[in-house]
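Sample intake sheet
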Amino acid sequence: MTRALKERLIGTWRLVSYETMEQDGRRGRPYGDAVGRLEYDDHGNMAGQVMRPNRARVEIGDGAAQQARAAYLGYIAYFGTYEVADDQEHVVHHVEGALNPAWIGGDQVRTLKFDGERLVLTADVVKGIFTNLDEARAAGAIAGGWIPDGLPASAADLREGHLPDGRHWGVFTFPARDAAAVRALLGPEITTGPLTSEPPGRLEWWPRLLHSPIDVDRVRSTGFRLYADRESRVTFAINWGQGRAYYWRG
């Protein structure tokens, strides 16, 4: 690690903006007017947090699962060690602990640059296309959490896109005979909003119908039904008649 570059990183950085950039130049703010901090020390340790402000409190009782899901999806937190890549253009965060268990033991890679006194970190979407579950499993997409674990073996035409912050989007097809196996992954049906989904513009296969703000009634009118998974972390939009399911976190 170049000492001069490391010295520029060391300290506590306050989040100014957290944005996505679409192919047509439009900008999105998946965490609203996000607040956060990123810390690097001179021993190679780091920690980062991003929060959507004004998250609703989680109250015990009816609706608690949905409230917990919204709270979880509105926060990013992890810590570990870091190093600057040999190209001096990327910083690699080696994750030791995280709110999302799927991150632990992995790396979060960011393009690194300075704009005056501001630190700018960027990440691009990673995409995967698989004919069947065997291909997805061999590529690590299931272990990484990008494709749901527990899908029937007949699931096919699987596509996924994910960002280093844990947000991900995907689609798969399944035959009618295995609908029960898909239903086993789901919690209660979602019949009211609001729902949000802000996929990167590079996911050409993601339908406009499932972009924020999502009109639940309109989605239902097209034959899709909306569900949270049993842990209330991932949202599914499923057309049972067509045997097609979209899902997303973030």
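Comment: The first strand starts at residue 11 and ends at 14. The first helix runs from residue 3 to 9.
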